[in-house]
Write a structure and sequence with these properties.
globular; about 70% helix; Arp2/3 complex 21 kDa subunit ARPC3; mainly alpha; 6 helices
């Protein structure tokens, strides 16, 4: 399962950094990788979410320009993966809106969390005011990507899922 998640993350990162990087609105890039992380976390739980979030975040950190802190996105995405994977138990599995709401909340939390941590660590190029302005666009972009990404990730996860062992 983790190999499939890793391959999906690499493909999403390639699409995000090439195709979606040119499809911006007010210089905001859709966060396809985050939507993939939330989808895997929602479908497979906190363990897969944490590993997927950390791996995707670290890969994305390596593509950021030099003044950024390597590992910060990995930390934020790991926490997002764990949070979504844990909270999925409290949602209805048949709900169409639950993944969309999860992506919206996770997108806002990721943007605000990254900015807060970067400011605390002394990054001068990050502005909390600018982050508040673009968070709405990021959430909108990610929510619009969810109906296309979530079913694809569900199909990938469903085909590669091992038989579940009954828990007592």
């Amino acid at each position: 399962m983790l190999l499939a998640a890793g391959a999906t993350v690499v493909i999403a990162l390639a699409v995000q950094s090439t195709v979606l990087a040119s499809a911006t609105l007010l210089r905001v890039i859709p966060q396809l990788v985050l939507v993939v992380i939330v989808s895997f976390s929602y479908l497979e739980g906190e363990r897969v979410g944490m590993v997927t979030g950390f791996t995707a975040g670290l890969l994305q950190d390596l593509l950021l320009p030099p003044p950024s802190i390597v590992g910060l996105t990995a930390l934020v995405y790991t926490l997002i993966g764990y949070g979504v994977g844990t909270l999925r138990e409290y949602t209805s599995s048949e709900s169409v809106w639950a993944p969309v709401i999860a992506v919206a909340v996770a997108s806002a939390a990721a943007e605000l969390g990254y900015a807060s941590l970067a400011i605390m660590l002394g990054q001068q190029w990050v502005s909390f005011g600018f982050t508040l302005q673009i968070t709405g666009l990021v959430v909108l972009y990610d929510v619009l990507l969810t109906p296309f990404v979530f079913p694809l990730v569900r199909k990938i996860a469903g085909r590669l899922r091992r038989e579940r062992i009954y828990r007592w």
